[in-house]
Amino acid sequence: MSTEKSPQHIGLIGAGIMGEALLSALIKSGISPETITIAEKRLERSEELISQYGVRAGEITTCDVILLVVKPQDMQELLASLKGKINPHALLITFAAGKSTEFVLEHAGSSHPVIRVMPNTASLIGAGMSAISLGKNVSESEAIFVKDFLACTGKVVEVAEDLQDAVTATSGSGPAYFFAFAEGMIASAVELGLSHEVATILTTQTMLGAARLLDESGKSATTLRENVTSPNGTTAAALATFSESHLDAIIAQAMRAARDRSQELA
Known about the structure:
Elements: E1 10-13, H1 17-28, E2 36-39, H2 43-53, E3 56-57, E4 65-68, H3 72-82, E5 91-94, H4 101-108, E6 114-118, E7 128-134, H5 140-150, E8 154-158, H6 164-172, H7 174-191, H8 196-216, H9 221-227, H10 234-244, H11 247-264
Parallel strand pairs: 1-2, 1-4, 2-3, 4-5, 5-6, 7-8
Antiparallel strand pairs: 6-7
Helix pairs in contact: 3-4, 6-11, 7-8
Domain Pyrroline-5-carboxylate reductase dimerisation: 161-265
Keywords: NADP, Oxidoreductase
GO biological process, one term: L-proline biosynthetic process
């Protein structure tokens, strides 16, 4: 692909929730829907996306770029089915946790440029976090193309591929950590006497505001925590309980478990 134009034909395999988020991002980035082909085994889902986005369904053998948006356990079988049948120089973009660019090259053919991406679910609302790693044979224009369309899903960083398992444990699985914490806060607020509706509003807006402060204030999480923690106050009492329960160690243990599972999926 040249730096002066977008790929002529893009294929997307796997049109689930994340697949749709990526499809939307491609179109927002300026890719014409008519140049996008989706491959989705659920006919009803395929028809839904065709109607909503104006894309088409069919073979992706001639595509310049192919997005592989399938579960890690399905990747090897998918790549085996594609090997020798697709454009031998097509850029392959894998979104499967644990599957390396070398794994894709081994099972799809060594001539392909491959980019590995770990997105997260907030990509659905344009507030996602994606980390990319460039495999062999990837040109500058291909890297720019991927970064540009992923920017329509949120923020994008480039990392060395050997750090992708750490990314998975941080931002890939990270939204679920916050959802679990929110569940706990809401349940505790209800136990303290608040209605479920009010508890949910208070918790959601508190987390949203705290995230925005961390993102926009330019201050570290440590500084922001200290700013709202008066000595011997209510916040200090709550944080002391976290400390006594070894919250930092629990978080570290959980993130190591996520990283280890990502490595097991390789």
